[in-house]
């Protein structure tokens, strides 16, 4: 069991490659990464967006305007079958790992709804008691992601109270939604999780801006994925072969509440990236700017959040 009482939070960013389209093998790999990170003292372990079963970069699943293909449906069904039901066997395994090592775990998944068959891009947070503490579905899939995932409507902005402060998450381009960011700020978020699949230069301007705007730590974690790792029996081989050899190149890093890197982005490899967060810096950084406190004007500007009633 980790000691979680210190003002220093040791975080591990798992920049890894999933076993693409294979839920069981990816979960096994994730559990090994959790074990390694915990043995190295991590108290918070963060995985990328849709780590389970993978982010199907470059695939269209046979969609075009007004038409679909039989082959695309076969690939989609394989992705569907390897997506996670929440709660389910896989969440039980992740919860057991969180409890065994006494850590918080943030896991990006593709979620398969148990009732309506729709897939969602979802982030899960497990607490050290083994419980699923938060589930957030991406509010608006980006571009062609809408072929795969539905709009999130459940668990809009859940946050978790930790020994180091409030922790919440937005997934990938949700972080470009100004009001969504404010929703997390208004809940006192001190550790802001941003699991994603971005390795373009503009993204790093974004995460540094968020850290300054929210005066919080931003945990930026991305995958490292190679073209050769796609299953050879997918129907979309023409699409896959047009992709670059390295599809997602990592760049995982942590940004402090002043917009500075705690660690420089790590590129071009699988790695578990470690960083220490000095949580005293969060309150200190808000001395002259607290965007939802003394630097706000609630008499002029107000955010209304339609929280789901469950």
Q: What structural class is derived from the secondary structure elements?
A: alpha/beta
Low-confidence stretches: none
Query: What's the multimeric state?
Result: single chain
User: Which percent range describes the beta-strand content?
Assistant: 25-35%
Give the C-alpha Rg: 19 Å
Sheet having the most strands: 7 strands, mixed
The total count of strands amounts to 13
Q: Helical element count?
A: 7
**Helix/strand order, N-terminal first:** EHEHHEEEEEHEHEEHEEEH
Q: What overall geometry do the principal axes of the alpha carbons give? A: globular
Estimate the mean pLDDT confidence: 94
Task: Walk me through what this model shows.
- By secondary structure, this protein is an alpha/beta fold.
- The protein is built from 7 helices and 13 strands.
- It has helices spanning about 25-40, 70-80, 90-100, 180-185, 200-215, 235-240, 280-285, and strands at about 10-15, 45, 105-110, 120-125, 130-135, 160, 165-170, 190-195, 215-220, 225, 245-255, 260-265, 270-280.
- Helix 1 (about 25-40) packs parallel to helix 3 (about 90-100).
- The chain is globular.
Question: How would you summarize this macromolecular structure in one to three sentences?
Answer:
This protein is an alpha/beta fold. The chain contains 7 helices and 13 strands.
Helices and strands in order:
Elements: E1 8-15, H1 23-39, E2 44-46, H2 70-81, H3 89-101, E3 104-112, E4 119-126, E5 132-137, E6 159-162, E7 165-169, H4 178-186, E8 189-195, H5 201-214, E9 217-221, E10 224-226, H6 237-241, E11 246-255, E12 261-267, E13 271-278, H7 280-285
Parallel strand pairs: 1-2, 2-3, 7-8, 8-9
Antiparallel strand pairs: 1-13, 3-4, 4-5, 6-7, 9-11, 10-11, 11-12
Helix pairs in contact: 1-3
């Amino acid at each position: 069991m980790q000691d979680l009482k210190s003002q220093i939070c040791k975080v591990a960013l798992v920049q890894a490659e999933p076993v693409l389209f294979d839920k069981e093998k990816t979960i096994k790999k994730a559990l090994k990464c959790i074990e390694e990170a915990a043995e190295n003292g991590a108290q918070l372990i963060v995985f990328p967006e849709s780590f389970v079963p993978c982010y199907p970069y470059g695939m269209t699943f046979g969609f075009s305007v007004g038409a679909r293909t039989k082959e695309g449906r076969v690939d989609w069904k394989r992705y569907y079958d390897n997506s996670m039901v929440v709660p389910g066997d896989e969440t039980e395994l992740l919860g057991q790992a969180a409890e065994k090592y006494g850590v918080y775990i943030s896991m990006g998944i593709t979620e398969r709804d148990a009732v309506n068959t729709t897939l969602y891009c979802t982030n899960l947070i497990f607490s050290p008691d083994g419980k699923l503490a938060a589930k957030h579905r991406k509010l608006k899939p980006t571009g062609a992601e809408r072929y795969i995932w539905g709009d999130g409507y459940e668990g809009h902005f859940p946050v978790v109270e930790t020994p180091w402060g409030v922790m919440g998450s937005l997934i990938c381009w949700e972080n470009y939604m100004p009001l969504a960011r404010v929703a997390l700020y208004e809940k006192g978020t001190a550790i802001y999780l941003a699991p994603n699949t971005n390795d373009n230069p503009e993204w790093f301007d974004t995460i540094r801006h968020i850290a300054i705007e929210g005066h919080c730590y931003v945990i930026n974690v991305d995958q490292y994925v190679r073209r050769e790792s796609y299953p050879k029996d997918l129907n979309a081989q023409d699409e896959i072969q047009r992709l670059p050899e390295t599809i997602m190149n990592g760049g995982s890093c942590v940004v402090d509440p002043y917009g500075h890197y705690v660690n420089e982005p790590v590129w071009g490899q699988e790695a578990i990236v470690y960083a220490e967060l000095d949580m005293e810096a969060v309150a200190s950084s808000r001395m002259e700017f607290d965007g939802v406190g003394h630097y706000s004007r609630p008499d002029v500007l107000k955010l209304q959040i339609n929280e789901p009633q469950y």
